[in-house]
Amino acid sequence: MADSLANSAPYDMRCPIARSLDIIGERWTILILRDLVVSGPRKFQDFERSLGGISPNTLSARLKRLEDAGIVERRFYEQHPPRAEYLLTEKGTELRPVLRALLEWGQRHTRFAASSK
């Protein structure tokens, strides 16, 4: 399956894992997908609230990358002013087991350490 997305990684893209990470491996991207899997369609502001610390430019870039990859769809629910929500496509929904595996691995092998701030 040929992908028209430009290769943004300097490593060997013959590996399917490398190609997958080239799309979903950037900081914040998995957490955007997590929010869509857990909460369903989300507005830009919903992501900003749930992903404390992400800049609007970074969020826009990650959503655009996911949209270009066919993983996320932007759907307009109001025309004036234009307002959109983001939802997983069928291709994006196929990532659910991947996120489930990450959740289970994290539960088994990591622990939350409260900040001392």
Key phrases:
single chain; 117 residues; alpha+beta; Arc Repressor Mutant, subunit A; 6 helices; 13% strand; globular
Describe this structure in words.
The protein has 117 residues and is α+β, with helices and mostly antiparallel strands. The chain has one domain (16-107): Arc Repressor Mutant, subunit A (Orthogonal Bundle), CATH 1.10.10.10. It is 50% helix and 13% strand. It contains six helices and three strands. The chain has helices at residues 16-24, 29-39, 44-50, 56-68, 90-93, 96-109; strands at 42-43, 72-78, 83-88. Strands 1-3-2 form a three-stranded antiparallel beta sheet. The protein is globular. The mean pLDDT is 91.
SSE layout and pairings?
Blueprint: H1 16-24, H2 29-39, E1 42-43, H3 44-50, H4 56-68, E2 72-78, E3 83-88, H5 90-93, H6 96-109
Antiparallel strand pairs: 1-3, 2-3
In short:
With 117 residues, this protein is an alpha+beta fold. It is built from six helices and three strands; from the N terminus they run ααβααββαα.
Low-confidence stretches: none
Spatial separation of the terminal alpha carbons: 48 Å
Report helical residue fraction: 40-55%
Described by the principal axes of the CA atoms, the overall outline is globular
The tally of domains stands at 1
